[in-house]
Amino acid sequence: MNTFQDLGLNKDLLQAITDMGFETPSDVQAKAIPILLEKETDLVALAQTGTGKTAAFGFPMLQKININSRTTQGLILSPTRELCLQITNEMKQYGKYCKGLNVVAIYGGASITDQAREVKRGAQIIVATPGRMKDMIKRKMVDISKIEYSVLDEADEMLNMGFKEDITDILSHTPEDKNTWLFSATMPKEVSNIAKKFMKSPIEITVGNKNESTNQVSHEYYLVNARDRYQALKRLADANPDIFSVIFCRTKRDTQKVAENLIEDGYSAGALHGDLSQNQRDLVMKSFRNKQIQMLVATDVAARGIDVDDITHVINYQLPDEPEVYTHRSGRTGRAGKTGISMVIVSKSEVRKIKSIERIINQKFELKEIPDGMEICEVQLMSLANKINNTEINHEIDKYLESINDLFADTTKDELIKKFFSVEFTRFFNYYQKTKNLNVTDTSRGEDRDRGGRAFSGGSNGSRYFINVGRKDGYDWMKLKDFLKEVLELGRDDVFKVDVKESFSFFNTEKEHQEKVLAFFTDFKHDGRFVNVEISEDKGGGTSRNKRRRDGGGSKRRSDDKPRGDRRSSFRGDGNRSDRRSSGSRSDRSDRRSSSSNETRSRRTESSTSSERPRRSRR
Ligand code: ADP
Ligand code: MG
Q: Can you state the angle between helices 373-389 and 413-433, rounded to 10 degrees?
């Protein structure tokens, strides 16, 4: 069965599915929909976030209810207001050809009387958060005594958030003979207890392995001294210019502080935690969705509602107390078929927690190194070069061209390029040249820092190369390594320190292979485009620590301890900060406002939206 038609859905739903562009059912949909359509049964479905659970219960519910009746027949409970609204919207989309359908969302933080009015108009389906639902039952604003289908969506999250009592209370107002469909990403004891308590011999379906996080996500950890946590975070961000991430902290206070520091340092960041008003949270989420915020710093509870598909990185600024929670965090990335990276910044005393998380997610972490300053400079420089290469020319400039040409009449192309890049690069370089290595050696795990197997041995780093393919082209480090090994006909460990960025990557080989590598890529086309490889100045990865700029020491250290925004900012493609300050432009004003309110920062980066497909250029 691999079409929606095969699942037994009616014409109206199939039309909506076509409109939405869904082509084939996801696993959980293919398994759940036929069962729910054919049988009056309880169901427990285990599937990761982003696997399409909403449609798995949404389509059958829409098909089974009687739209000609105004009685409330379906109740969907979900943990957060965000999810509640999202499910409501999805249900409306799915049911757009079901005439007379009324789906109503019920959640805290908005007018209860408005919601009650909506329900009164006749809502066949209610989507609710448990707290508000309980409230409305108590105030007799809803009648769920004729419910036929109830859904517990993201059951593990609801229980995590302490909604057990509320759920129990709500379900006690529903008929005995209704069907309950429970959807969850993980199956901790509390969820199976709920299933036992409220469900009658449910059919169980599982997509992927139980309690296993998706293998779309690779897991990395970085070992640093606790006091260097923040510096490490900044470097991870700087080494990934196109980052679009959620950063998890343990407390509201840390969340607020990290976000404030990032904003002060010139990053597009925002905080999301329970001490903000609903309005503030909405604003932050809106900016995040629009990618005006690249780094969303959040508490676990506040992040539960985040359902954004293209998050590239989850960064665990601190590990959660409960290893289970890590699954929820890392599940924020690698959604909708995309790959993602979950990074953990740990101090030595926390390393053992990594082990217990590995057991839960059934996946290994890779120990990686915080990039050193020069590596970051190179990444930023190449990212800028790529951006320039892909920039569409604005012909408004043409009329000034003559005077500009006059000015540069005696400048060679090389010089001009160098000058141009120096505008952006020097400040960045000045900041990073004095910084220290942040990595701490882990003696407890006894494994290599690099899967290529040499980084730590003090052996040679060989030659470092730049290659113009990256994550955008579907590569992660394993895929790129395999690809290089194959085309270059090299052995298992001959390609190492593979470091994949958004639109380009780096890798190393032994010096003896250098000639072969460069010769091979002189005119190499792959998937219809030229793949360009050149020698990179930086040696990359671990051993650079032995060679270069250890600790800045003494007075030099200060610059790393007290970074300033203007040092790093301009690589984000939005011009010189101090210029903007004096110009008093709109974006400048909103900057200041957002730093003080800590909501959004409107410093957009073009890089997150513009296509940065590398071309064959730098030769
Ligand atoms: P989950 O509840 O499992 O986290 P969602 O139901 O929120 O996942 O779906 C994740 C995303 O995938 C949504 O944007 C949804 O519209 C989309 N989606 C769901 N089913 C399909 C499908 N069969 N084909 C393509 N996209 C889908
Ligand atoms: Mg969902």
A: 140
